[in-house]
Amino acid sequence: MLELECLNLEKKYFNKIIFRGVNFKLNNGDSLAVIGRNGSGKSTLLKIISNLIKATSGKIILRENSCEIKKENYFQHIGFSGPYLNLYDELTAFENLEFFLRLKNTDKYHKEKIESILKKVNLHYCRNELIREFSTGMKQRLKLAFSLLNEPKLLIWDEPQSNLDLEGMELLNEIISEQVTKGIIITATNDLWNSSLFNITLNIENYK
Predict the structure, then answer these.
(1) Distance (Å) of CA 204 to CA 36, 61, 73, 103, 191
(2) Residue ranges of the domains in the chain?
(3) What is the pTM of this model?
(4) Between 3.40.50.300, 1.50.10.10, 2.60.120.40, 3.40.50.10610, what CATH number should domain 1-77+190-208 receive?
(5) Shortest CA distance to 167 belongs to which of 123, 198, 101?
(6) Residue 17, CB-side half-sphere exposure with 13 Å CA sphere
(7) pLDDT tens figures, 76-127
(8) Class of residue 161 by CB neighbours under 10 A (exposed 0-12, middle 13-18, buried 19+)
């Protein structure tokens, strides 16, 4: 059982308040959509939750079975995808996922896991092609695959629908529906494509 609690989060850049007073609590089965205009702080909030950057003040608490998880171990529980995730153009789709999986946990590496995830995002047929040959939509699918590598209990997506076609959007819906059966998902978006998929919505512009 996973729990995520955000307590009075505030973020400033050069004394400019990006957001303040953000409070919420999520449990297994919850899906949160973070909405707001471009530049409103959606990505910043997700990076703070993922322990990629620090909040100016406030606290993030991640618990599993009521035991608090150390921040340095968040990566073991979180799957993350965002437009700023860098893929390696000189590597194949398979090699990109292999590289990232080994970074996360070499003990759990095996070929079958990568093959399975590539099939899930419909990229298995081009697994041995270089990323520089991929369309933007194919690269976006690969970023989604990256977020699923460690079978995360907390899945965090920043603008996951970017550059996806109808088939890609259906894939998003399937992954979200599956994720809430085993954990939590947080998505930042300008386009709440299917509001029925999210049981909680947070407008970051209400926290200025």
Answers:
(1) 6, 19, 27, 32, 14
(2) 1-77+190-208
(3) 0.93
(4) 3.40.50.300
(5) 123
(6) 12
(7) 899 999 998 889 999 999 999 998 888 766 555 688 889 999 999 999 999 9
(8) middle
